[in-house]
Design a protein that fits this description.
Helix content: 25-40%
Number of helices: 13
Shape: elongated
Length: 661
Amino acid sequence: MKAMRKLTPDEITTLKNHNCSAENWDWIQVAPDFDAQRIQSTRFYGRNSIGNNTGHVQIDGIDRPCGIYGAVLKNCRIGDQVFIANVSSGIQNYTIADQVVIEDVHQIMTEGKSRFGNGVRVNSLNEGGGRKVTLFDDLNAQVAFLQAIYKQDDRFQANLEKLINLAVEDKSRAHGTIACAAVIRGCKTIKNVNIGPFSVITGASELSDGTIASCREDPTIIGSNVIMRNFIVSEGAQVHEGSALEHVFIGQGVRVGKNFSAEHSLFFANCEMFHSEACSIFAGPYTVTHHRSTLLIACMFSFYNAGSGSNQSNHMYKLGPVHQGILERGCKTGSFSYLLLESHVPAFSVVIGKHMSNINVPDLPFSYISEDASRSHLIPGKNLFSIGTVRDGAKWPARDRRKSSVKRDLIVFDVFSPYTVEKMRRGRDTLQELYDNAAKEQEAVHHGGVVIKRLLLRKGAKYYGMAVDRYLLGKVFEKIEEPAEETRWDKIAAQLQPATIQHPACWVDLAGLLALRERIDAVIRSVAEDKIETLDGLSAELEKIFRDYKMDEWAYVCHAFEQEYGCAPQALDKEKMSALIARWQEAAGALNALTLADAQSEFADYARIGYGLGAVEEERLKDFEAVRGSVATNEIIQQCQAEGEAIKDRAARLLELVKRF
């Protein structure tokens, strides 16, 4: 504690001359170097303390003397070099740290004991309330997922809730905190809100019952006309432009603005939420909506992009709202798409049109789901060679805005992973079975609420098979290539041994974290059996799973490799390896060629409509190239072309390597 003292008689006289008053001057404590000249037109109630108020702060490019000017303070502890001005209804029950700026604010107060948003319960994913998530300062996507999804284990849920409640109760305080270097200007009411260091709050209309976490490396920004109630906001988030949020969690690096509104929803790392409306959604990392007419309701998303007018609902319920939908990682919905819930859309799929039946096809990833004559049609595997999928896979890690030293959400960015590849293996078998069981004259089959044309069954199975080959063989070849100086096969083979895992093919996606189900089940058992006694202990176990992803991925690769190709990687001989190199080159080359063709189609004649108005053909082409570029200059197309050459070069190098074994 800093050494503090009572006011001197001369200081009290100075304060009175500056139009200040106090309920009791003896209840005011000040720092030894306190300057009474810098307190003006201020009323003190209860017990207050004021630190060193010398020095200046810079506001809008103007140096302003630290101090308190035109404010009402009740039971406040003020740090050093603080500037407070024009707080008409006062600041009550707050600890204000060093170098804080508060100006033109109506009211900042803590009333009674508050948990500052900790303990707020959010009806995520299901409006009926069966999947509540309890908010706390350090919540991440994975702990929220465990709360919302694993409801079948009563003992686990009870113990998890106990761990969370212990952390929540520890947050209960009668005093709010405004941490060092925070700036609060032009706001109306702030009630029961903890405000983190270096945060900037300007023009907010109402903030009540919440926490705004922030840090020097990644300041959090709350902007004009924002209303937030019962909330937690994480480091580096920005909430702007009239957004109205109630019962929400805003994760690290999230952007919210342009009159976006939401209730009972969770938004994790790097989400972007503009214009739209959300109700009871679980928005995993990189969920994006930018359009005014979009309503997202009662769904789980991650790495998701919502088209304008996207909507999900179930208008047929009679026992209350039962909306609940799963759009696995990487999905997109087209403009004015509609999904009847409940539905389960597979990973990296595109939904176009209005779907009036429940869709349930989790093992057909990378698909297009469209609507024709009120029926849902699926093209399996089409999105495998979409240039958009390639672009998405590259952009997500590059767009990670989180700068805090602690990145809470555990994110595996891989598009092709044990999670998606195992789904493709199952999907390939399902499509083949549907084809074999369909009559020859049958034009289409019905599966999981969608229609699949018979001709597309084998084509989809082929695409999945090519993607499986590209992934599994590519991963094994990476391991073989690693010890480049080693030419003895027996030594290389020894390094291909996988970790011993009981069920290497069973994977789950915990809102960004790809993990073996075996490991998640072990964590759940540990919580249920009281072997994990704190939230920190739970976080440590999840972080270990995150760190071990590559090891577990290799165990999966070895398991699937042996099933696909008839031998373990370490048992390969020269003949088998040479054949598999050719198989990998064919699969990788074919998929790359399809992706390149998809990218080049954006430069076809039909794409030039509206360019070069009133111009002849040659001028029209030049106008198009000036705006869009050309096949020869487009960076992504160049990358695809380079990838095609790299596939050939790698295959040649691998064959040379085999000869040396």
